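Q: Please design a sequence for this.
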């Protein structure tokens, strides 16, 4: 039990530190262009996948449709993204970057590439291939863990369901 406790505490500490650094670095870049990092991810996906719908965008960015719609609303209002109705079904709207949105997406991408180049200056014996291999392996391990970990229900929901079933 002590070992599990130590692993858990180490995980929490590393998770907070790694993601704090990464999110702060990403937000520093994107905030110069008046978009959040999450909004940039939407711009990037729209750029890479032409004629994408909101549902497809939410799926590809692994977010809910309503969360994607909230982030997208600001991009539409700022003129970075435009919608076009599908010819045979006007309810379906395709998303595209405007020229302004394409320019912002490209500028942010270039800023991230410059930032990534600085990683190569960090003194380490690891090569870029080693680092990529580590992240790939780590992502695969997390995916296995996520599929096999016990799934917990929130106690409040379980209690409410039980109460509704008893009535």
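A: Design:
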């Amino acid at each position: 039990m002590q070992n599990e406790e130590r692993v858990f505490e180490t995980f929490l500490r590393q998770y907070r530190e790694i993601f704090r650094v990464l999110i702060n670095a990403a937000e520093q870049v994107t905030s110069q262009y008046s978009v959040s990092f999450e909004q940039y991810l939407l711009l990037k996906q729209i750029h890479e996948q032409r004629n994408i719908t909101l549902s497809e965008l939410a799926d590809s960015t692994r977010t809910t449709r309503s969360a994607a719609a909230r982030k997208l609303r600001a991009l539409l209002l700022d003129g970075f993204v435009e919608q076009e109705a599908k010819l045979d079904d006007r309810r379906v709207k395709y998303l595209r970057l405007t020229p302004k949105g394409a320019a912002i997406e490209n500028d942010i991408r270039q800023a991230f590439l410059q930032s990534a180049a600085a990683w190569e200056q960090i003194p380490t014996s690891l090569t870029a291939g080693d680092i990529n291999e580590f992240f790939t392996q780590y992502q695969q391990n997390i995916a296995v863990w996520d599929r096999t970990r016990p799934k917990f229900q929130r106690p409040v929901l379980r209690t409410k369901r039980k109460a509704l079933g008893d009535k």
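Q: Thanks. Anything notable?
A: The two ends are 40 Å apart (CA to CA). The longest strand covers residues 89-97.
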